């Protein structure tokens, strides 16, 4: 799916983090967000997913078109892997969980409770949700954290299939995923110099520079 954003300003809490963000992504294309820690990658992805409305600017798509994978895995700890998959399939109106199971090699884990999975297994289960959403735009925040080399390759294959089916993707990642149609967007030029940031906040990056 083709989509674009125009002159977007995005905030976290009361602080405007990014201004003037403009880009477009074509059907079948992946856009990789690159920027230092704290520059606003998560902020932008949350804005695209409709979790935080933009301060200003335009989103030329519906947040309903976006499937968002956040830092947190977002699993139902007490449910089994299969029950988690079925839960999401019901939410997104998808009948068949098999493509998600196959994409992330979950078949041997189906009866295991989510809380008993390893960190990498949890991540695989969490990412498999993207396959079940049927949504055209995947927004992925550091998706490969906890994944070994083999599972990074599985993830890249899942994204490549999604793109080949006419989907698109925006990813924050620090590693090269080997995606055939990936373009890179450096967010550094869009960092806002916020007037709202309290100067004595020890967690603001500026305090450590
Ligand atoms: N609730 C909040 N209120 C105010 N500022 C926040 C809030 N959450 C995050 N920030 C700040 O917003 C800025 C952008 O954060 P964001 O998480 O988008 O960065 P990032 O590029 O994804 O970083 P990383 O690579 O470390 O994940 C950071 O300076 C962060 O400290």
UniProtKB/TrEMBL annotation:
GO molecular function: ATP binding; ATP hydrolysis activity; transmembrane transporter activity
Residue ranges of every copy of the ABC transporter domain listed in the record: 3-206
Transport keyword on record: yes
Any Pfam family hit: ABC_tran
SMART domains: AAA (SM00382)
Transmembrane stretches, start-end: none
Keyword Nucleotide-binding: yes
Signal peptide residues on this chain, from the entry's feature table: none
InterPro entries registered for this protein in UniProt: AAA+_ATPase (IPR003593), ABC_transporter-like_ATP-bd (IPR003439), ABC_transporter-like_CS (IPR017871), ABC_transptr_haem_export_CcmA (IPR005895), P-loop_NTPase (IPR027417)
GO biological process: cytochrome complex assembly
Database matches in PROSITE patterns: ABC_TRANSPORTER_1 (PS00211), ABC_TRANSPORTER_2 (PS50893)
SUPFAM superfamilies per UniProt: P-loop containing nucleoside triphosphate hydrolases
Keywords: ATP-binding, Cytochrome c-type biogenesis, Membrane, Nucleotide-binding, Translocase, Transport
Protein name: Heme exporter protein A
């Amino acid at each position: 799916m083709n989509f674009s954003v125009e002159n977007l300003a995005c905030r976290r809490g009361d602080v405007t983090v990014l201004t003037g963000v403009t880009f477009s992504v074509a059907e079948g294309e992946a856009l990789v967000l690159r920027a230092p820690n704290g520059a606003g990658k998560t902020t932008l992805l949350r804005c695209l997913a409709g979790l935080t409305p933009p301060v200003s600017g335009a989103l030329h798509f519906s947040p309903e078109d976006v499937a968002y994978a956040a830092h947190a895995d977002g699993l139902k700890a007490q449910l089994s892997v299969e029950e988690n998959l079925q839960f999401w399939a019901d939410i997104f109106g998808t009948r068949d969980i098999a493509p998600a199971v196959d994409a992330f090699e979950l078949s041997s884990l189906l009866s295991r409770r989510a809380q008993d999975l390893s960190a990498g297994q949890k991540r695989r289960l969490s990412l498999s949700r993207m396959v079940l959403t049927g949504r055209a735009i995947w927004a992925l925040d550091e998706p490969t954290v906890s994944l070994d080399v083999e599972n990074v390759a599985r993830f890249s294959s899942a994204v490549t299939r999604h793109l080949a089916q006419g989907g698109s993707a925006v990813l924050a990642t620090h590693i090269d995923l080997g995606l055939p149609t990936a373009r890179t967007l450096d967010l550094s030029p869009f960092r806002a110099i916020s007037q709202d940031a309290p100067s004595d906040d020890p967690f603001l990056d500026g305090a450590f520079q």
